[in-house]
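To assess whether ligand presence alters the predicted conformation, the chain was also submitted together with guanosine-5'-triphosphate. Input:
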Amino acid sequence: MTGKCKIAECGAPEIPCHNGCEDFTTCPNFIAEIVEKKTKKGKLTTDEKKSNLNWTGQAFSLDELSLISSRTSPALIGIVGKADAGKTTFLAMIYTLLLNGRTFKEFNFAGTKTILGWDELHHRLRLKQGEVPFPPPTPVGSHRLYHFALRNRDEQLKDVLFSDASGEVFSLWSINRDDDDENAEIARWIYSNSNAFMLFIDCEALIEQKNLAKREIMRIAKQLCHDLKNRPVIAVWSKSDKKAEILSTIKDSLKTELENLFSNYQEIEISNFLEPGPDELVHKNNLAAIDWLLEKIMLSSNPDLTLAETNSDDLFINYKGK
Ligand SMILES: Nc1nc2c(ncn2[C@@H]2O[C@H](COP(=O)(O)OP(=O)(O)OP(=O)(O)O)[C@@H](O)[C@H]2O)c(=O)[nH]1
Ligand SMILES: [Mg+2]
């Protein structure tokens, strides 16, 4: 026990008590310090203290979007696809590639307001002696937005957000787009607010469930098409390390049906499993998918304002000003 004597001249407990008291703890003049209580109290205060900052570094929820939208009009990339298609892993891979020094084609990384969210994804993907520990399935009610600030060669800042929701909400939405189902509401919000879409095609599901998986992908694709207004869509053949195992009739017909459905459209193969050496599917295509969407988004936000040449007999219409 620590403490001190209330009589200033007494040196107990370091030296014997000036009154001759053998056990200083029983001395009526001794004041014990209640160390444990103090520490516990101190700890409680720290735990209870909440941050006053409105920025936590975690992935955004919808009501935190103003943190970004107050400075620029962010571009939202809607990640769409059925459950287990590899959507969350794709986001983890993008961040991992940037951390490893890879870059987007036209944009430099200029920061992120969701660094803890990205880090969490990255740590779940880290290679453990050849095996890839994947993130757990995204819960049905969860809707997170991950942020990058990017700068192009003209030093223009572009805020980009990526949505991450459970695949189940897209399957629900594809069955009934006007349903009041609260979970499908997440898919509806992503659909209304995204500037561009990635549509995930799960190669593994096409191998295992064949036409059943194809029908589900097409249902989501058709839903994506219904009010698209020429927003760009990139079909991402995820888990393409297995693509060769898909029946060619299924693969070819799905490819054609998707091409017929969309106009502002591209497709690409990606994977998270590295082949030895530089790997096109992993190192190149994951980023190239975003490059293509960013290019399309920038094109649509900078419309060509050049006037078409007019030739008329009317002098007034032909007047170009001097
Ligand atoms: N073969 C292969 N499997 C992969 C690859 N990427 C992911 N997977 C597998 O796909 C599973 C699902 O990945 P997620 O990223 O969680 O899929 P998701 O689309 O986010 O799933 P939900 O959140 O449930 O909608 C992982 O647990 C892995 O088993 C890949 O590149 N190749
Ligand atoms: Mg997920």
